[in-house]
Design a protein that fits this description.
Elements: E1 2-7, H1 13-30, E2 34-39, H2 42-48, E3 55-58, E4 68-72, H3 79-88, E5 91-95, H4 103-107, E6 110-111, E7 121-124, E8 147-151, E9 167-169, E10 178-180, H5 185-194, E11 195-201, H6 204-210, E12 216-219, H7 228-240, H8 246-259, H9 267-279, H10 281-296, H11 301-310
Helix pairs in contact: 1-11, 8-9
Length: 312
């Protein structure tokens, strides 16, 4: 069995990180003849995972027979490559971006369409909803590098005056926190698993955090017309049932809404909320351990896709 993934990098590491994490997870379980990622940014993949067993090639170099093709984030190649896929592949999967929203359940497992392909095409939506494709659960490294606050936000300046200890990634301004250089993905994962709190962004690190059992705060990828606020609301609706303490839940909601420009909080209230989390950390940790257990009892995204390719 041969699998190929097509992934174009838009404007962040998450596109590459999620793609190679999924490809690696499927490689470990399926042990196919080969898995190849076709991309417009090979160097980034090798920076993220320098010693990967996955082959990384330029999109234009596609000239092989692959039984199953995955178009990551609705990325499709040109007509010339589609004709090659049409001749040699059994099925194609369009993988959408991860979303906590309920529409993921309705859209998942539906028939997809790509002009130029007559082979079966299926639309897959990773997500939190029970009928979605599920959450990708594959940390590339489960070892830990201990830190108090692991900060990987689009807008870290929102919390740097409150957080006194920890590490900070991709932030160019001077800060009292330990600045982290670019590291391979397995090293980044080790900080997620070794943190007391994770302040994460986007979708790749979000899904690692969901499965870590460690308290985290999520800043969604910003979209035009604040469409990402729908994702934030859906996430809060999901996580709401895991809280027993009303004040802790409300404080958590305030932080998430503040990070995502939905609600304004002054620095004194922010400090008070953070102190409440510190004073009641064991209870907060229990919330996220429950979330971890929840996903351990669900089918993850890689197993969901593996079933599809092995049953054909």
């Amino acid at each position: 069995m041969n699998l190929s993934f097509f992934s174009k990098i838009i404007d962040n590491y998450g596109d590459a990180g999620f793609t190679i994490r999924l490809a690696t997870a499927m490689y470990k379980k399926l042990n196919p003849e080969n898995i190849t990622i076709y991309t417009d940014y090979k160097d980034l993949f090798y920076k993220l995972i320098p010693e990967t067993q996955i082959m990384i090639k330029d999109i234009g170099d596609y000239d092989e027979k692959h039984d199953f093709v995955f178009f990551m984030f609705q990325c499709t190649p040109d007509d010339y490559i589609l004709k090659k896929i049409e001749k040699s592949s059994k099925k194609a999967f369009i993988i959408d971006y991860f979303t906590p929203e309920k529409w993921a359940g309705d859209a998942n497992n539906t028939t997809g369409f790509i002009n130029g392909l007559s082979i079966p095409v299926e639309f897959i939506v990773p997500g939190l909803h029970k009928k979605s494709g599920g959450v990708l659960d594959y940390p590339l490294n489960k070892k830990i590098n201990k830190t108090t606050n692991n900060i990987y936000l689009y807008s870290p300046e929102k919390i740097t005056d409150v957080i006194q200890k920890g590490t900070i990634w991709s932030f160019k301004k001077e800060t009292h926190l330990k600045k982290m250089p670019f590291l391979p993905q397995k090293d980044f994962d080790s900080y997620i698993h070794g943190a007391k709190y994770n302040w994460i962004r986007g979708e790749d690190s979000f899904q690692v955090a969901l499965n870590s059992g460690i308290p985290f705060f999520w800043e969604a990828y910003k979209q035009k017309d604040y469409i990402h606020h729908l994702k934030v609301k859906a996430f809060l609706d999901f996580i709401s049932t895991f809280f027993n303490d009303i004040k802790m839940k409300n404080d958590y909601f305030k932080i998430i809404n503040y990070l995502n420009d939905i609600e304004t909080i002054d620095i004194m209230e922010l400090k008070s909320i953070y102190k409440n989390f510190e004073d009641n950390y064991s209870e907060l940790r229990n919330v996220f351990e429950s979330i971890k257990t929840h996903f351990q009892n669900k089918t993850n995204l890689q197993d969901f896709l593996i079933k599809k390719v092995t049953f054909l």
